[in-house]
Write a structure and sequence with these properties.
173 residues; alpha+beta; Peptide Deformylase; 5-stranded antiparallel beta sheet; 3 helices; 28% helix; globular; binds nickel (II) ion
């Protein structure tokens, strides 16, 4: 496994719609492994476009123990939401591609997704609460949508200003 470089906003790859994966082969599995290792550096989910690969692939671990380590690593190829609850919930989200920032985003409380697993097997999963939030965030990445696209323009502008300021301070150090 190898750790990959995470692209940051405003890299144009993050805004592109990712391509479907035709076949879950060893190349895809290697990417899944590398993405998982990359994700564990401070994330609960990671989408392939974030590592510069415009394919419909995500990894998630929404059950990491406090203090680090693996919880329940999950792999999703070609995930699509096939059902969502009426109920929505608000949660404060962050993203490895927008480091150090966060904002409250509204998501469906429950979703059902269809996807292919690590072995290319077709599966369905009913997810709720935190797992459902993480999955919606990551599936958005596959359509070129960042969580900051789902907040008000005013909040987005404030957040991007803070991001820019933090980057300037970092490069001055
Ligand atoms: Ni993200």
């Amino acid at each position: 496994m190898a750790k990959l470089k995470v692209l940051e906003h405003p890299n144009p790859i993050l805004k592109k719609k990712a391509q479907r994966v035709e076949k879950v082969d060893d190349e895809v599995r290697k990417l899944l492994d590398d993405m998982l290792e990359t994700m564990y550096d401070g994330g609960v989910g990671l989408a392939a476009p974030q590592v510069g690969v415009s394919k419909r692939i995500i990894v998630v671990d929404a059950f990491q123990p406090e203090g680090g380590g693996q919880g329940e690593p999950m792999y999703f190829v070609n995930p699509e939401i096939i059902w969502n609850s009426e109920e929505k919930i608000l949660f404060c989200e962050g993203c490895l591609s927008i480091p150090g920032q966060s904002a409250e985003v509204e998501r469906f409380e429950k979703i059902k997704i269809r996807y292919q697993d690590y072995d290319g097997k077709e599966k369905e999963l009913l997810a709720e609460d935190f797992l459902a939030i993480v999955l919606q965030h990551e599936i958005d990445h596959l359509d070129g949508i960042l969580y900051i696209d789902r907040i008000s323009r005013l909040k987005r502008n404030m957040l991007l200003k803070k991001l820019e300021k933090a980057r300037k301070e970092e490069s001055a150090e």
